[in-house]
């Protein structure tokens, strides 16, 4: 018998500031830990932002910070796993704040499900994406990376999440060694679809991404919250 | 493994007199994936039962490690800086994480024994 599982979706808009997102996730994670709220999923896009993980691998940023700033990008050090990456307009982001213990999921299975979510979305557009080789967590189309993952798990509650490239300005990735992998390209859904395929609005694609997530994690009840 | 005690967040503790060694269980390392980084506390840090004292990174996920007991860190396994994979390869021996001077042994009553822990893992794994 399927256990009923609810997830609440919060759409945070397409220019959600990274610091605001961190603060919101911290509050939600704390509330989730105390069972004040159900599993929650943030769906959003960021303005141009570079981020580093807990290991602080800033040797993978190829230009000085002041130059990033002059490009109009911010730089943030975070507690998530993973290496350096870029977030920006036209890149769909999901930050699930969920309790893994209630699912009986470990980090590995959780991340696999995040990968499957992006693979499923890509397949809706005829793009065959797959997981990477060992140690190359993320979603790839051939040798090109279309989706990235960086997660934090604290007391069994997740934060941070996944980033899927719909059609961001890929030149921003030139200033870093994305995810610490030097010899591979970054790509996007727009780049990988067949010529005759016209992509719908980001909003629709982001809704589809949410549906893929809900399906793969087995949520029976998906609730939207009107908000900011 | 039978004389260890276990927390429901999948850490183990081995008590010898006033001193305790702490690590994560085989179940934990299996569910984490290959550990690529371990964040260790400094010797002298106070730890509290149930609270985080460090983290491991695997598959692009950082997972907090919680202390099964309260006390003061007296030693950390610095081999994990060079060889984080010891946590996967030898979770109960060479992959130990910290050694602690115990604050109070009463807290051990809050932990599970080996049999209870096995059952706990089975129930968790059955959830999905």
UniProtKB/TrEMBL annotation, chain A:
This is lipoyl(octanoyl) transferase. The record marks 145 as: Lowers pKa of active site Cys. The lineage of its organism: Eukaryota, Viridiplantae, Streptophyta, Embryophyta, Tracheophyta. CDD domains: LipB. GO terms for molecular function: lipoyl(octanoyl) transferase activity. It comes from Erythranthe guttata. Substrate binds at residues 80-87, 148-150, 161-163. It holds the Pfam family LplA-B_cat. InterPro entries: aa-tRNA-synth_II/BPL/LPL, BPL_LPL_catalytic, Octanoyltransferase. Keywords: Acyltransferase, Transferase. Pathway: Protein modification; protein lipoylation via endogenous pathway; protein N(6)-(lipoyl)lysine from octanoyl-[acyl-carrier-protein]: step 1/2. It comes from the Eukaryota. The active site is at residue 179. GO terms for biological process: protein lipoylation. Belongs to the LipB family. It is an enzyme of class 2 (transferase). SUPFAM superfamilies: Class II aaRS and biotin synthetases. Its EC number is 2.3.1.181. Residues 35-221 form the BPL/LPL catalytic domain. One of its GO terms (cellular component) is mitochondrion.
UniProtKB/TrEMBL annotation, chain B:
GO terms for biological process: glycine decarboxylation via glycine cleavage system. Gene3D superfamilies: 2.40.50.100. The keyword Electron transport does not apply. Keywords: Lipoyl, Mitochondrion, Transit peptide. The keyword Magnesium does not apply. Its main location: mitochondrion. Residues 19-101 form the Lipoyl-binding domain. This is Glycine cleavage system H protein. It comes from Erythranthe guttata (Yellow monkey flower).
């Amino acid at each position: 018998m399927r256990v009923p599982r609810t997830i609440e979706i919060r759409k945070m808009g397409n220019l959600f500031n990274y610091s605001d997102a961190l603060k919101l996730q911290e509050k939600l994670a704390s509330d989730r830990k105390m069972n004040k709220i159900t599993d929650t999923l943030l769906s959003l896009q960021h303005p141009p932002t570079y981020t580093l993980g807990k290991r602080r691998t800033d040797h993978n940023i190829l230009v000085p910070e002041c130059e990033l700033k002059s490009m109009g990008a911010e730089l943030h050090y975070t507690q998530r796993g993973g290496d350096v990456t870029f977030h920006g307009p036209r890149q769909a982001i999901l930050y699930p704040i969920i309790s893994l213990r209630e699912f009986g999921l470990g980090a590995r299975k959780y991340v696999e499900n995040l990968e499957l979510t992006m693979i499923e979305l890509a397949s809706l557009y005829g793009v065959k994406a797959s997981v990477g080789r060992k140690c190359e967590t993320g979603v790839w189309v051939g040798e090109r990376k279309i989706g990235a993952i960086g997660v934090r798990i604290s007391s069994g509650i997740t934060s941070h999440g996944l980033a899927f490239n719909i059609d961001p300005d890929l030149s921003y990735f030139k200033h870093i060694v994305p995810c610490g992998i030097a010899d591979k390209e970054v790509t996007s859904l727009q780049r990988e679809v067949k010529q005759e395929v016209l992509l719908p609005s980001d909003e629709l694609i982001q809704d589809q991404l949410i549906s893929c997530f809900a399906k793969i994690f087995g949520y029976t009840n998906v609730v939207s919250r009107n908000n900011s | 493994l039978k004389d260890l005690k276990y927390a429901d967040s999948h850490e183990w503790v081995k008590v010898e007199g006033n001193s305790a060694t702490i690590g994560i269980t085989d179940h934990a390392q299996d569910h984490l994936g290959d550990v690529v980084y371990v964040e260790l506390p400094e010797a002298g840090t106070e730890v509290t039962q149930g609270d985080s004292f460090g983290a491991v990174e695997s598959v692009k996920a950082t997972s907090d490690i919680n202390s099964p007991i309260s006390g003061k860190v007296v030693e950390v396994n610095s081999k994990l800086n060079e060889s984080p994979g010891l946590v996967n390869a030898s979770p109960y021996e060479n992959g130990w994480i910290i050694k602690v001077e115990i604050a109070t042994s009463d807290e051990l009553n809050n932990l599970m024994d080996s049999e209870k822990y096995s059952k706990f893992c089975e129930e968790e794994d059955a959830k999905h």
